[in-house]
Amino acid sequence: MSWIHVMVLTPFIFATIVPYLYKKFNQKIHTGWFVFFIPVFIFAYLITFIPEISGGNTFMKILPWLPSYNIDFAIYMDGLSLIFALLIAGIGALVVLYSIYYMSKDREALHNFYVYLLMFMGAMLGLVFSDNIFVLYVFWEMTSVSSFLLIAYWYEREKSKYGAQKSMLITVFGGLAMLAGLIMLAMMSDTYSIREMLTSHNLEAITSNTLFLPAMILILLGAFTKSAQFPFSIWLPDAMEAPTPISAYLHSATMVKAGIYLVARLTPIFGGTGEWFWIVTGVGLVTLLYGSVNAVRQTDLKALLAYSTISQLGLIMSLLGMGSGALYFGYGDESFIYATAIFAAIFHLVNHSTFKGCLFMVVGIIDHETGTRDLRKLGGLMHLMPISFTLMIIGGFSMAGLPPFNGFLSKELFFTATLQAANMSIFNLANLGFVIPVIAWVASIFTFIYSMILVFKTFRGKHRFVRVDKPVHEAPFGMLISPLILAILVVAIFFFPNLFSKYFLLPAWEGVLPSLAQAGELSIKLSPWHGWTPELIMTLGVVGLGILMYLYIRKWYRIYNYYPQALTLNTIYNFSLENMEVLSKKATNKYMTGFIRDYLVYIFAFIVVIVGGVFWTFGGFTFDVSQDADINIYEAGLVIAMIISAVTVLFSKSRLTSILAIGALGFLVSFFFVLFRAPDLALTQLVVETVTTVLFLLCFYHLPELRKEIGKIPFKMTNAIISIGVGVIITVVALSAKGTRLFDSISSYYENSYELAGAKNIVNAILVDFRGIDTMLEILVLTMAGLGVYTLIKLRMARRDKNEGAE
Amino acid sequence: MKEPNDVLIRSVSKVAVVIIFTFAINLFISGHHYPGGGFIGGLAFSSAVVLLFLTFNIETVRKNFPVDFKVIAALGVLIAVLTGVGAMLLGVPFLTQAFDYFNLPIFGKTELATAVLFDIGVALAVIGTSLTIIMSIGDDR
Q1: Is B1 inside a domain boundary?
Q2: Any CB–CB contact under 8 A between A794 and chain B?
Q3: Where is the NADH-Ubiquinone oxidoreductase (complex I) chain 5 N-terminal domain (chain A) (predicted)?
Q4: What is the ipTM metric for this complex?
């Protein structure tokens, strides 16, 4: 166990005490202040790794977890995981600070909020540091779960529940696909460690395997669902029902980038093949276009930001796809040219987190102060909220790709990458390559337009306030700190890009392409002015056309109405969800009849088929009487008595007689235990029999009159066949058990119970010592069953009382 | 449940319940070396309480046993788990049990085993669960 492990686990441990802190101090101090220190400490701790990591070192720390299954909590830290972790902790700290002012301490259930938030933070940190694929998967799903909880934070709202369910269904579907893909990878390479998969020997085994393509597609399904790529993007706009700090943190800065992280992390394994290049680039570009075109038509500020996030994620994804082409060329100069795209992806990922986080927080401020996020109701806020306006301009212009903000630099790099990709000579790019820069350019125009809408529709124009009961004014200073810090970063990165690149971006680039990094260094000089390059001309085109289209938006806005509503992804999702519910309800109603008799029929029929089937196919029946002891008179008498009481149950006319006869049968079995010298079993059987008989008598009062079942012949025949079948099968199993011996007896080990456990009673020593964990789980199950019975009965009574009250 | 009005069963069970309780505790303690143990002891204990239910009504019993049996069950599981965790704190695998012999003032040389603590958990879980079930069913009118 190392300090990095402790760091990953700290949010989880702290989450357990948050409810107590809330209970104790929330009257006076906002719970967020306590939580705030966790990401700050983590951030400060992570900073200390920067010199080592930027010097080219990596760390691998292993904590054995399930060593017998080769599953270890292995932590691998390189530039890629470090930059993600810094984002998680850094933005996390800012978001918690922001939430202290955003979430009212008197009205909101803060303990829930911060527990989920910390759970997410820990899961996300674990995700980016895990080297073992199964540990990675566990953290991956934990982020989905905490995201679900946070979206449904205001769970009394119908839309929150809908959004939470949608995100859960889609991301967990992807997560399961990813698990299958990861298992395939493990089968091909014979290791669970991502690091070990990258050794040239294993890499060869993976690429030459027939499972290569299925594994790639399954893993990409996971990445695409998480990172809201087309057509799985529909969950992200609905996730905006979460409180705004959460939207800023999970649904723009960190969680949705988990898919990007995975694609980047696995690029050395899958990259360099045509399939990977085209799937990742293609899906990324389609998402980029889809998101930006749809963002323009949104009227809710957060929905607009959600679509813009989808679009930006698509941009980063397509860059990773284009950069993966570098691996095709080995270690030549060409590969370094194409690897620039990977660098651009990381650069834009960081930039997006800064400006989008800032924008979300400003939108949250607007929502908080005016009570609406609807663009049709907003306008003219410029004079009332000057600081927010400035922040919005910085974030919005950075998103649009304008100088002097960091978005400009990464947008230029993106254009460079698309132009280079179009000139690649591989993967059929000579014919189709020109599409890439065209899509990128068109999407950028729309990006420009929605950025302008965001900034100017909200802050310019006439006053149109809905909330009149309260004067609208600038947000409290505490709420402005976090977006202010992000905005400063947005500008600072523009002016010192190379410093930033040396310590953060290049190490991360080396993490994505370790083999290239060993061959040489990526020499890249970032500067705002490159001369009259094609990229700059593209940007000028974007700005020019963007301004024109923004000014004349009313003229062409109508084209959106031509798109048929029935064909949207949301309609398809809702339609299939409804139908699945109806279908499964129908199927369930078919066999869940509510009669315990039917359920017993299923269970017994299943036993007959499975056990009988196994006996039949493997010829398990043996019958050996040679070693049997003689039957003495007590045993014969007991058997006769048991048969009599069993038959009595069948033919008795009253329920009381049946209950007593079953009880008698149980007691007779316990006599058998006495005869065979098993006092513990006999005692247990006796007491259990007593208690169940009494229980039966207690229920007796409620049971309906026993009446003769007058069923049809087929009904009786089914019952007869099943009961005879079960009887025969159990008898056969009992008889054969004695004659068959597949393994040596293990009882000799327990004979030493006095030396090993200090107990003369072997049975009890087994129960509490040798197999203690079994007993522990048994009593746990027992208690849960007891609580289940209690709940069922109490619920029924409560409902009955309510009905009586209503009448 | 109707009010039972049987003098005979009342008189007998007043005596019998005490005997069963004693027997239950005996069963529990002797479990380490002789037949018995937490499960049987717990069940025998519950059966005595059930006898009280049958003889007197459920309200009388509840008044004399003013405990929530759900809590007892949960407590039992908690004790069982904690004895396991206790082993971990001492650096041995989860649920490792230990025993040793001590010279106690009155009892003389006596064996003390951590397994008994675990068994207490088992007994409490069994008592709590069985009585929770029986009381909720008996209550349901």
Answers
A1: no
A2: yes
A3: 67-108
A4: 0.88
